[in-house]
Amino acid sequence: MKIENIEQIIKLFERSTVSKMEIESGDLKIKLEKDSGETGNYVRIPNVSSPTLVVEPDSDTLVKAPLVGTFYGAVNPQSAPFVQIGEFVSAGTVLCLIEAMKVMNEIKAPVEGVVLEILGRNGEMVAYDQPLIRLGEST
Amino acid sequence: MKIENIEQIIKLFERSTVSKMEIESGDLKIKLEKDSGETGNYVRIPNVSSPTLVVEPDSDTLVKAPLVGTFYGAVNPQSAPFVQIGEFVSAGTVLCLIEAMKVMNEIKAPVEGVVLEILGRNGEMVAYDQPLIRLGEST
Amino acid sequence: MIKKILIANRGEIAVRIIRSCKDMGIETVAVYSTADADALHVQLADEAVCIGAPSAKDSYLNTNNVLSAALLTGSDAIHPGFGFLSENAAFARLVEDCGLIFIGPNSDVIELMGNKINARRKMIEAGVPVIPGSIGAIESIDEGINIAKSIGYPLMIKAAAGGGGRGIRIVLDDSQFRAVFDTLRQEAKNNFGDDTVYIEKLFVDPKHIEVQILADKHGTVLHLFERDCSFQRRHQKVIEEAPCHMLSNEQRIKICEDAVKVAQAVGYDSVGTVEFLFDQHQNHYFMEMNTRIQVEHPITEMITGVDLIRNMIRSAENVKLPMSQEDIVIRGHAIECRINAEDMRRDFAPSGGKIDFYHPPGGKDVRIDSAIYNGYVIPPFYDSMIMKLITYGDTRLAAIKKMRSALEELIIDGVTTNIEFHYMTMHHSTFIEGKYTTGFAQEWIKELKERESFI
Amino acid sequence: MIKKILIANRGEIAVRIIRSCKDMGIETVAVYSTADADALHVQLADEAVCIGAPSAKDSYLNTNNVLSAALLTGSDAIHPGFGFLSENAAFARLVEDCGLIFIGPNSDVIELMGNKINARRKMIEAGVPVIPGSIGAIESIDEGINIAKSIGYPLMIKAAAGGGGRGIRIVLDDSQFRAVFDTLRQEAKNNFGDDTVYIEKLFVDPKHIEVQILADKHGTVLHLFERDCSFQRRHQKVIEEAPCHMLSNEQRIKICEDAVKVAQAVGYDSVGTVEFLFDQHQNHYFMEMNTRIQVEHPITEMITGVDLIRNMIRSAENVKLPMSQEDIVIRGHAIECRINAEDMRRDFAPSGGKIDFYHPPGGKDVRIDSAIYNGYVIPPFYDSMIMKLITYGDTRLAAIKKMRSALEELIIDGVTTNIEFHYMTMHHSTFIEGKYTTGFAQEWIKELKERESFI
């Protein structure tokens, strides 16, 4: 057994989630152990599921931008906003608009709830996945 | 298994995140362990005090090379070696020679003790700080 | 003048474009998918906009989000890099319709060259040698077999809308021709939305040689000499070098002049590449033109000193090229190794993961184009190429030796890469000789497997 | 032919030398102190020998251990790098006495140029302009004051065995002359073991211009044009550029020809540098010759394409230089920033520590010469320079812009560095103009302190 092979074995062990390992092969015997407690997540798996609806731990619902565009909280500057903080909305209610490529896209409430926060700013750009509106439980 | 290999294995272990390691190969058995709660010493302050004498935790004395040169365990190939394993030596006894720039440098025992190991190899180069001879307590 | 460019790409090419923009005092907007939030191009650009979910079709191919990001950040122009939207004529038109500058050739050329049959026909008109085959589309098996008789087997049936090694069938005789013809058309319809196919003679063990073109919107078309891209695994380039070691100076001039003829014939007005086959009788044949910047452009920059991205941007700005053909001279030799996160022991399967330790080589005559860093997690959604390692030397051998020591210095821990494969290749006598053809890499991999160097 | 070289140095210059050796197929032996066991040069060399305790005098200056290591590893030659033993004539002789090749000039030249008075006298003989002053040593105050009358104040009294800014007193009038003369002699005796002193006129705000020399053992002496090293803090170079922006082509030829004259006059036979003062009346004066490779040699390599280390080794091997003066042409402009681990907020005090995160810049026209890596601990015993960041451009302004973006990309976390200082300097109008003299850096630092940019 060459040193390089031992090195490879150590690397394999390090990369694995295994905490103890013993190898016997011929006259060679190797025993490896990792400190418990240390997790160090190895590969971060990006979230591939629909990112427009994220349920927060406290059961709030964060409505995020499904596309890049300009945020509008009302149909035009003179109109009343679609929703206001504290207002109860049912699922499907239009919460805001995102204008992209000269098309106005209505962003609707995915669930019913109380409007807790309006995070988009009138006339400003929102990127994909940017939080727009926070809905809370309708208690 | 050569000293260099053991050295390499120790380095591998040190660099790895492994906390315990045992290797058996032939008649060799290595067991390595790291302090838990290991914090990752920030600045390693190299030892600037006299490096020729290192007192081991188990009170053995490791005599190391104070200069770069060729190791000789005897005055010449025909002579008896200066010291043999198991022999008791008093402080100041010549343990070996290191030839450098055509000058023979006598390496003397810094303390009295029993010769436990002769680590230098006849006619081979020793680098600065390389272990030459291990002296044990004279019990 | 362009003041702000949105770069509709990711990885090392996005970083590469940002670097030239910084040199030119042009602001940059990066776009990124949610999987690329920690990517280097996002860090280096002046602004960054998230444009979609990890899958390329939801983000880097999402035309609307890319254009919205460009418009809303006040960008003047879009650089498409390579891959993704770079050879999409409809996208180029859309960019122009939005009042923005598309940094690349005009959309008509993209469209023309995107259809391989039309490109062939155009080249025949221009008097540039094309690979023997059908002039136009083949409508029926009988028509095809007739042409096959005149050019001889082996040959390829190719989808007009294919490219990059896709939509191709190799046939050795009439019966095989009959067997695959209809399947390929159906496949082409399904994959490219176009079932047009044509025939080309198959050359055994040719060199793949391509010529770098640089043109402006004022009629100037220059060549920056050739690259040898014959080291391919499954039609994917792995190692490239410039110039091609095998060409005599006479042959070099002929190929380069034909490339200029190609670009002139189609009114080319940006950076692009004309690909040729070079057969064992020293003849060259037009294959296709890539209407974009290419992965391997740095080796041309190394031997000519010309910054291709800078000139591509200036050309899109309607500026005249600041040099003429005589100013472009080959100095030395350059090699590029594509460092991929892939496992050669598992048939080069892509392998993601976190880069635990990264140490790039440095010093004289080494160039690194990369978007990785210590601790970077390679997302599993995109290309496995994580670095272009480029070395230079006064001679080809010096460049090879420099590549060896650069590969020795390079450390990428935590993910499996093809560094070792490159290192072995740099010591292979056939590679060192420089006469290798497009079949070499596959054979070399087979050889490595047989002697179980892959353990 | 040399088969194995022991490199009697550490840090980036050891790495630099190893790289050229690898290109040339020459084996390398690194030496290291116990504080450098984890150093990069130890990793990259084929062999490595520990030669002593951390303090340089116990290891890198320990002649016996260095020579023993060379002999016992079967090395043919020793490359001293810069600093340490590089300009020690006795060491060079010892190397030769051991039957090894010293990679540098012959020991007689090292000795001659090491004594500043002898060097001056030799240059006067050769007809090269030297700084006005005494021809030889000054024995008494009266003798000195007489000479002072003829050349005028301000002037410097300098120790013949000094150098690098040490052993110098500036005096403005006779009374100051009287006040410092004896003290300086005593100091010189204590520090250099030689109380010989001489006088040189002090120039106000000159340029420090140096010419790179490349010579062989067959009488060929070439110059590789000049570098502008006027950006100095306390006589330490911080930023260098090549060529010097201020020189007309006529002046360039004159200075370079005088440098060749200097090297020829002393029988120079390796790589070396002739330093000149260039005053406000466009006159140049010989200062001293450095008989070794210099820190800033990469910028000359960038503009000429010549590998100085390779040629230095070949020259030591008794090989004739493979080029002539006409082959050496300036192309473009190069700048080097010395990245030091030092705290500009504490008057540039050296700062050690562990590099937690290291990310070097990459891409076109960037060269990095360094010996650091992620997790490296900078030992407190040696020079604070941890990286040379070198950029290139077709024009001086392009090189400056490239340096700005390279500095933006560069990340060295965990230790305090002067990256920010360089970045600010690259935006200073006086630097951009290129007319700055040796007084500029100090004034600029003062200015930064005053406007409290140092927080």
List the helices and strands and how they pair.
The complex is a heterotetramer, with two copies of chain A (139 residues) and two copies of chain C (455 residues).
Chain A: H1 3-15, E1 20-25, E2 28-34, E3 53-55, E4 61-64, E5 69-72, E6 88-89, E7 94-100, E8 103-108, E9 113-118, E10 125-126, E11 131-136
Antiparallel strand pairs in A: 1-2, 3-4, 4-11, 5-7, 5-10, 6-9, 7-8, 9-11
Chain C: E1 4-7, H1 11-24, E2 27-33, H2 40-44, E3 47-52, H3 63-72, E4 77-79, H4 89-97, E5 101-102, H5 107-114, H6 116-126, H7 141-151, E6 155-163, E7 166-171, H8 174-192, E8 197-201, E9 207-215, E10 221-233, E11 236-242, H9 249-265, E12 271-278, E13 284-290, H10 297-304, H11 308-316, E14 333-340, E15 342-343, E16 349-350, E17 353-354, E18 357-359, E19 366-370, E20 377-378, E21 385-393, H12 396-409, E22 411-413, H13 419-425, H14 429-433, H15 440-450
Parallel strand pairs in C: 1-2, 1-4, 2-3, 4-5
Antiparallel strand pairs in C: 6-7, 6-8, 9-10, 9-12, 10-11, 11-14, 12-13, 14-21, 15-16, 17-20, 18-22, 19-21
Structural features, described:
The complex is a heterotetramer, with two copies of chain A (139 residues) and two copies of chain C (455 residues). With 139 residues, chain A is mainly beta. Chain A has one helix at residues 3-15; strands at 20-25, 28-34, 53-55, 61-64, 69-72, 88-89, 94-100, 103-108, 113-118, 125-126, 131-136. Chain A folds into two domains: 3-52, no CATH class; 61-136, OB fold (Dihydrolipoamide Acetyltransferase, E2P) (Beta Barrel), CATH 2.40.50.100. The longest helix of chain A is centred in the first third of the chain and has 13 residues, at 3-15. Residues 37-57 of chain A have low confidence and may be disordered. Chain C has 15 helices and 22 strands. In chain C, β9 (207-215) and β10 (221-233) form a beta hairpin. Chain C starts with a strand and ends in a 5-residue tail after the last helix. The mean pLDDT of chain C is 95. The chains are: A mainly beta (139), C alpha+beta (455). Chains in contact: A-B, A-C, B-D, C-D. Chain C binds chain D through residues 15-16, 19-20, 22-23, 25, 44, 298, 301, 305, 307, 331-332, 357-360, 362-364, 366-370, 373-375, 393-394, 398, 401-402, 404-405, 408-409, and chain D through 15-16, 19-20, 22-23, 25, 44, 298, 301, 305, 307, 331-332, 357-360, 362-364, 366-370, 373-375, 393-394, 398, 401-402, 404-405, 408-409. β2 of chain A pairs antiparallel with β1 of chain B, so a sheet runs across the interface.
